[in-house]
Amino acid sequence: MSKNINTIKILQLVEFVLGNDTYALPLNNVQEIIKIVEIIYIPKAPSFVEGVINLRDKIVPVIDLKKRFDIKNNLNEDNNKIKIKASSRIIISEIASHTIGLIVDHVKQVINVEESHFENKPEITNSIDQDFIEGMLKYNNKIIIILNPNKILSSSETNNLNCLK
Description:
The protein has 165 residues and is mostly beta strands. 7% of the residues lie in helices and 47% in strands. Strands 10-1-2-13-12-11 form a 6-stranded mixed beta sheet, with no helix packed on it.
């Protein structure tokens, strides 16, 4: 007698906060999470690039996800610099085969969610570039925006970050 076993796919995600909203990245794209360290400013870098850090003798470009996604709250309006809080972190992530640091307000937890809770991204308008959004997730009475790490930066932006190393 054969049994039909349904396999349930579980997504492992790192949940974090940007401004007032909750986002997540696939755990397999996250190398580590570190406290904010000294970030070296790079002249003429794109506005969302905060600079570079020295991570165990490796130069790693760091981008501010709030600037990248044009999230205005929590920015210091005087100089457009990010407000660093005690809870701010840098997520060291693998993006398009490059190690990049992502500044976030707060890392909440790693969550394990059934794939069935995952929904495609809403099509708001064709004029808004939303390739970086993989989909949405309803979890614990909130909506989490799932990011596609390989689409956070365009290929030309990724190539430009290579020049910072």
